[in-house]
Amino acid sequence: MSEIRKVGVIGCGLMGRGIAQVSAASGYPTVVREVNDGLLEAGLGAIRKQLDRGVEKGKLEAADRDATLERLSGTVSLEDLTDCDIIVEAIVEDIEVKKDLFGALDRQCPDGTIFASNTSSLTVTEIAASTNRPDRFVGLHFFNPVPVMKLVEVVRTGATSSATFDRAFAFARSLGKVPIACMDNSGFVVNRLLVPYMLDAIRAYEEGIGSIEDIDTGMKLGCGYPMGPFILGDFVGLDTLYFIAEIMFEEYREKRFAPPPLLKRMYLAGYHGRKTGKGFYDYSGEEPVVSKFVTK
Ligand code: CAA
Ligand code: NAD
Question: Which of 57, 120, 148 to mutate to test the pocket of ligand 1 (most atoms within 8 A of CB)?
């Protein structure tokens, strides 16, 4: 099994920044690519803040923070990822955008480079088909927040070679994660179960079964979940949740995967959750309060 010496991450949003942080912290020289300098600086700034917080809390040595940051570099140029041994993509959940990206990477990268997508709901088979290396293509599905969540779903398609799967699996383990093996299907294991639950919570609210706060409290205290479904939706991003629901509904044609009308309206109105400061909850004050948009 050839060694992974350098890691590329594409996208420095919610997920990409976490993957890049964990990769650099695990000892890999890591380069992360964004579409422009402003977004790149925002992502790298969030990583620095996260590491500084670890030092302040006494959970991380200052020297380890500095070494992590030294291994991490940012770029807006795709060419800077050409010498990476594995490239993990974490950009918008849109098949055409992902296909364009991997088509370009396939033309510029050496044969040995493994491609991985962090997609939540697209099939890896479809994304891999935009390249000439479907045998060297896997899904590496991380969970939000990446530095905290231990799971990585390692996804093999019918075309993924065993050597590639084994390398990707070992790579996930080397990041301190617990990998599980999944065959390629829309949503893999976790989202296949989690997404209908989150969508059903919205439908329960639409049907007047309970308030947003009560449904959240119910699932937290009744099931011991760390977050209720609405806080979790805001945390994932309601734009991303909407894209995921559209994709899973298209795949399975079952109502439980369909985006509820309220989710669609919130997406269209720019209520994308924590990342925009408002979703089911408004995050502008000290404590989140239920957003007026959903109670009107
Ligand atoms: N990034 C990095 N670290 C974070 C973080 C973030 N955004 N938010 C919290 N943390 C860290 C904190 O620094 C803290 O670390 P230490 O213990 O080392 O100090 C730890 O997480 C706990 O944080 P808090 O005490 O502030 O808060 P908490 O106890 O409420 O935990 C949480 C926060 C870990 C996010 C917890 O609420 C949780 O597990 N929520 C559920 C998350 C979840 O279900 N994620 C999956 C989403 S679905 C998905 O990812 C798949 C998809 O395709 C959509
Ligand atoms: P996000 O919107 O926070 O970040 C996506 C980033 O990708 C943006 O900053 C955007 O500028 C950047 N981007 C878009 N096109 C790019 C390109 N060609 N090159 C470089 N950067 C580009 O989204 P996110 O929540 O980080 O989700 C990213 C991917 O991870 C999606 O496929 C999503 O389904 C998946 N995912 C999300 C979660 C979650 O909880 N949010 C969890 C697991 C997987």
Answer: 148
Considering only CA atoms, which of 39, 38, 36 is closest in space to residue 13?
39
Report how far residue 247's alpha carbon sits from residue 121's, in angstroms, rounded to the nearest whole number. Answer: 6
Ligand 1 neighbour 148 (Cβ under 6 A): yes
Distances (CA, A) of 100 to 105, 127, 240: 9, 9, 19
- Please tell me the distance from the alpha carbon of residue 272 to that of residue 237, in angstroms, as a whole number: 5
2 pLDDT higher than 90? no
Tens digits of residue pLDDT in 92-113 = 999 999 999 999 999 999 999 9
Strands 30-33 and 72-75: parallel
And the tokens for 246?
């559209």
- Would you say 14 and 20 are in contact if contact means Cβ atoms under 8 Å apart? no
pLDDT > 90 in the chain, percent: 98
Distance between Cα 88 and ligand 2 center (Å): 11
Percentage with pLDDT > 70 across the chain? 99
Cis, bond preceding 229 (omega within 30 deg of 0) = no
What local confidence, expressed as pLDDT, does residue 1 receive? 52
Q: Which ligand is nearest to the CA of 191?
A: 1
- If you measure from the C-alpha of residue 160 to the centroid of ligand 1, how many angstroms do you get, rounded to a whole number? 32
Active site residues: 120, 141, 153, 191
Please name the residue whose Cα sits nearest to atom 41 of ligand 2: 236
Alpha-carbon distance 90 to 123, whole Å? 14
Q: Whose CA is nearest to atom 42 of ligand 1?
A: 144
CA dist., res. 12 & res. 23, Å (int): 13
Q: What is the spatial distance between Cα 268 and Cα 260, in angstroms, rounded to a whole number?
A: 13
In order of start, what are the domains of the chain with their CATH numbers? 7-183 (3.40.50.720), 190-283 (1.10.1040.10)
